[in-house]
Known about the structure:
Layout: H1 12-21, E1 40-43, H2 47-60, E2 65-68, E3 84-85, H3 92-106, H4 108-112, E4 119-120, E5 123-127, H5 130-145, E6 151-153, H6 155-161, E7 177-181, E8 185-186, H7 189-202, E9 206-208, E10 213-219, E11 222-228, E12 231-234, E13 238-240, H8 246-251, E14 260-269, E15 279-282, E16 287-291, E17 297-303, H9 315-328, E18 337-347, E19 354-357, E20 363-367, H10 373-390, H11 404-407
Parallel strand pairs: 1-2, 1-13, 2-9, 5-15, 13-20
Antiparallel strand pairs: 3-8, 4-8, 5-7, 6-7, 10-11, 11-12, 14-17, 14-18, 15-16, 16-17, 19-20
The structure holds pyrrole-2-carboxylate.
Amino acid sequence: MSTNGLPAKFSAWNLFRRGLTGESWPPVWRSHDLEGSYDVVVIGAGVHGLATAYYLAKNHGINRVAVLDKGYVGGGGSGRNTAIVRSNYLTAEGVQFYDRSVKLYQSLAVDLNFNVMFSRRGHLTLAHNDGSLRTMRWRAEVNKLQGIDSEVIGPDEIKALVPEMDTSTSARYPILGALYHPPGGIVRHDAVNWGYARAADARGVHIHQNTEVIDIETSGDRVTAVKTNRGSIATPVVVNCTAGWATTIADMVGVRLPIITHPLQAAVTEPVKFFLHAVVVSGSLHVYVSQTERGELVFGASVDPYASYSMRGSLEFTEELAGHVLELIPSISKMRLLRQWAGLCDMTPDYSPIMGFTAVGGFLVDVGWGTYGFKAGPVAGEAMAEAIATNKTPEIISSFGLDRFQSGQLVGEKGAASVGH
Ligand code: PYC
């Protein structure tokens, strides 16, 4: 820590000075004893929970906030995703919401004083049949109406963007066109988690790792306390920012969520010289791929076809993935996979999240992210913080309330999925 208790500022001058003096860098965030009460308890130290805590402190001056996690910072979906950022959704509500996230991501490194390595790449969603091409046109029109840069392009333009791609008509599933979304890109997911954790900590938020929520207590129709494996915390506000365990936490206060959890696997190759400039997605071939700044290719495919909390990789996944990837980019057949892993996706009936207040006073949810959670982290945190601070649902999340499953006003985003389902 610097002498005022805040984390050291990352700057060229500080790097130079510490290099000369040998002064070591302080921890990125601190550990604290669990206090007996907080104004807000956030469950889940992934990007959603940390961003909520950060914006509570930064935008609303609320910093008596605890972020609890039964594991470690970014150990769930926030560290297991494939780090794609985009706003080329199918509904106007989705486009506006994810566009705000893209904008926050673009300036996040400066805001957090932490290099999150946001890289605008351009995002291609390939169409291999007439039905997909129609959906791409639909998305392009919705995007343009919301002022978002997206258009349908043909095989020659695709080839110019990704020369390694097989755009020939002799491919098994020839590419007919693509939705091209120039603002899409990637970001370093761990850095996003660490950056939010560091910036929240600097503003007085307490991050408690290895702190499992065992129960949530209520009195009348309001939350009053959270029981953990390290003791109880009195609090008037609890925010459920978990994935995988969203329903387990909500069950503690009797709130039922329409969520089914599926594993989603991913894999990464050894690093090679940079060649893949765009993020490439093919829903029909069940594959998406991007290249990191370090040169690894990061791949994902479909969600596993069964409900499970398993986070293990499978051979079926890598075999299928390799087959599909090589249909798109045959020249990478000699590259070796380094690692594979899985995360948990909480699927909702309409593929949109569940956000905001519930029937239990002081119990809010930011859950049901399916395969879209990481890209929404900044805007979700900003909106949840506003909801807590103002006790009102912000306009940008007003379509995502739990009550839509009673009113029937669903926000269907399945057509915008990169991931096969
Ligand atoms: O929606 O772009 C996406 C995505 C990629 C991997 C998981 N979700």
